Amino acid sequence: MNKKIVILFIVTLLSFAATNKIVAQDANHTSKTEIVQETHQAEGEHQLPNTFMVIPFIVLLAMIATGPIMYQHFWEHHYPKVALLLGAITASYYLVVLKDFHSLLHTAAEYFSFIALLASLFYASGGIMIKVDKKATPLLNISLLLFGAIIANVIGTTGASMLLIRPFIKINEKRIKPYLVVFFIFLISNIGGALTPIGDPPLFLGFLKGINFFWFVEHIWYIWLPTVALLLIIFYFFDINNKADDDSQEYSGKFEFKGGKNLIYLAIILVAVFIDPNVISWVPNLAPFPIGIREMIQFGVVLFAIKTSDKEILKYNEFNIEPIREVAFLFIGIFATMIPALQLISHEANVMGDSLTPGLFFWSTGSLSGVLDNAPTYLNFLSAALGKFGLDLNNAADVKEFMNMDYIYLQAISVAAVFFGAMTYIGNGPNFMVKSIVESAGIRMPSFFSYIIKYSVPILLPVFTLVWLVFYY
């Protein structure tokens, strides 16, 4: 473990070194959030990567998919080294060959924002106990999934997932099947959060670019509602035939909640999301560091939650650090190795922008959001859509004009980025976290490919095709 920490520390130092060099050359001292959101601008100043540099990303995805099945012992003990090694290959290419420090700074900043949010929500929610002493039925499960999809728009898909996954599997512990968790990922970890910028990271980046906070609920609710309803109907037919192994237990029907102080931690985390120089002008810019006030607050919540969470609640929740450890290591590799793929996609999207229709934007944004980070994918295609009309994503007035001029492009990109995140375990941060938490509780989940073949393709793809036929064909 010490060697792994040393390697991670070295990679982090490289990010800081890149940061310092950029800032020394940049008299304007661009803020962290601006860097995260303006990758495409930095890409325009540097040579595009060689297409072969997507190989580390493909190798990492292939190993995430096959490791737990084909070489489980090796993977469980060495996945951190694999992720860091492949990430270091890409980082070295950008540092030595391309001398493109902006892209590494962007990735470091985005990774720290990502892990700060997930870690803080993971530790804060781990100290909350929600106990529903009722018999698990399709109606109860549908109610929980619908409730989670709704509150995902208030506390984010990550917050809703971390808060509800443990009670959801506890309620169904006598009849637990993989499909229960899969539909949880579909509805709560992804599709549910399509109505507000808080719901999912891509929409929040759109909000920072100038899209009105309530634009999303106004223009997406009539797509969100039938999609959620249709998936709940499909879930009902899965769940109706699932019988408990032991149906003799009596239930009191009581609802129990403990860990109220951790709700305060959740509130602090969500408020911190908006503590950004682009949202609040007086928030200080902490460049050259790749973390800001927001991330400091969220990491601070992690420390407070570790120190103060009720030990009995943690025991009841079967809380352990392996899920966040796995996500932290794997996603540092994913974030690093996907830089070339994102830059190549950004270039092609802008080149082809004139020929892209709303339907093509829907499928392009969606298909790539399923295997790449959906936040930068969203920004790349949003930039291409504005460029189609001669507008600039970095100009708030242009974004406002685009938002009111022809909303169908923005709608298609926004819906696709959020919805298609459910297609794979790596499509959205909470997906992998939910999988890891469930597996830590001793529940066997489908492999990477099994998830896609058994659930995503036969269930989600027809639903998304229906959305395309009705709204974008």
Descriptive tags:
473 residues; mainly alpha; two-stranded antiparallel ribbon; globular; disordered N terminus
Provide a descriptive summary of the structure in words:
The protein is an all-alpha fold and 473 residues long. It has a domain at 119-333 and 422-471. It has helices at 2-25, 32-37, 39-43, 55-70, 72-98, 101-126, 138-171, 178-187, 201-209, 215-239, 260-273, 293-308, 311-316, 322-337, 339-351, 358-369, 374-388, 396-405, 407-419, 429-440, 448-471; strands at residues 129-132, 255-258.
**Estimated radius of gyration:** 22 Å
Which segments are poorly predicted (pLDDT under 50) over 5 or more consecutive residues? 1-44
Q: Tally of extended strands?
A: 2
Q: Which strand order spans the largest sheet, edge to edge or round the barrel?
A: 1-2
Number of helices: 21
Shape: globular
What's the order of the H and E elements? HHHHHHEHHHHEHHHHHHHHHHH
Biggest β-sheet strands, sense, barrel: 2 strands, antiparallel
Overall average pLDDT = 85
* Distance between the first and last residues' Cα: 52 Å
- Beta-strand content: under 5%
Structural class: mainly alpha
Q: Give the % helix.
A: over 70%
Question: Would you summarize the structure shown here?
Answer:
The chain has a domain at about 120-335 and about 420-470.
